[in-house]
Design goal:
There is one protein chain. The termini are far apart. The protein has ten helices and eleven strands. It has helices at residues 13-16, 18-22, 26-35, 91-94, 116-125, 127-153, 156-171, 186-193, 197-209, 225-234, and strands at 2-6, 37-41, 46-48, 56-62, 65-70, 76-82, 87-88, 102-105, 109-115, 213-216, 219-222. 46% of the residues lie in helices and 23% in strands. It is α+β, with helices and mostly antiparallel strands and 235 residues long.
């Protein structure tokens, strides 16, 4: 279920949309204030589906979102994990395509929705904003290229180690300085690492036996980060 709140409910745009906010004029900021809105998504609820026409650029304000694609035999592949305050959902619009992926809330999430028609108008009038999106798309392309190589050339251990390090870098650690601040089901971790769930479970158990990680349900604690980096690097 999605609930919608209007922008008038004291949304702090200047902090939540800081990257875009800095390159806008005061008049452009007022346009953004008047047109943007907030949507709250419950855990596991869909944000957009493959084949949908893109209508909004999205900025994740709170929570976690996964971008994924359904593959052969019902097996899904997680393409990207979104963290606050990243922008997403606009590439298909700029490519004049419908969405090629799905997006869902990995946990309860709050998203700022900015109509893409408004984004278009702002880009045409502000070259600094256009450069912002060029940089964003270029960065995303570089990350996608690297992941493609890693997920196709690394062995299972290397792929899973890389995914755990990716989650550490993206979402950080809890107060103990070791436990990942995101709790993934084994299936989600497998989809992120391009492997079957059974292979993910076996490899995690191997990492536990080697004292590289410790596990408590969905909680994963990294015990030996240097060893994990070595496993990822050697593939």
């Amino acid at each position: 279920m999605v609930t919608r709140q209007q922008h008038k409910e004291e949304i702090d745009f200047s902090s939540s949309l800081a990257e875009v906010w800095r390159v806008l004029t005061e008049k452009e900021r007022e346009v953004l204030r008047s047109k943007a809105s907030i949507q709250n998504f419950k855990r596991n609820s869909l944000i957009y589906c493959q084949g949908d026409e893109p209508t909004d650029m999205m900025c994740l304000l709170k929570g976690k979102v996964k971008i994924y694609k359904d593959g052969i035999g019902g097996r899904s592949q997680i393409i990207r994990m979104i963290k606050p305050v990243q922008y997403f959902g606009y590439r298909a619009h700029f490519a004049h395509e419908n969405y090629l992926t799905n997006a869902s809330a990995f946990e309860a999430s709050t998203i700022c929705m900015i109509p893409l028609a408004v984004v278009n108008d702002l880009i045409y009038g502000n070259p600094d904003l256009a450069m912002f999106f060029i940089r964003q798309l270029s960065t995303d392309l570089g990350i996608a290229d690297e992941r493609t190589v890693n997920l196709t050339q690394k062995h299972i251990r290397g792929r899973l180690a890389e995914s755990l390090l990716f989650l550490k870098d993206s979402y950080g650690l809890e107060e103990d300085g070791a436990t990942l601040s995101i709790y993934l089901a084994r299936e989600d971790l497998a989809q992120l690492s391009n492997m079957t769930t059974s292979n993910a479970i076996r490899t995690l158990s191997t990492f536990v036996a080697e004292h590289v990680i410790a596990m408590d349900g969905r909680k994963i604690k990294i015990i030996d980060v240097d060893r994990l980096k070595k496993i990822s690097r050697l593939g």
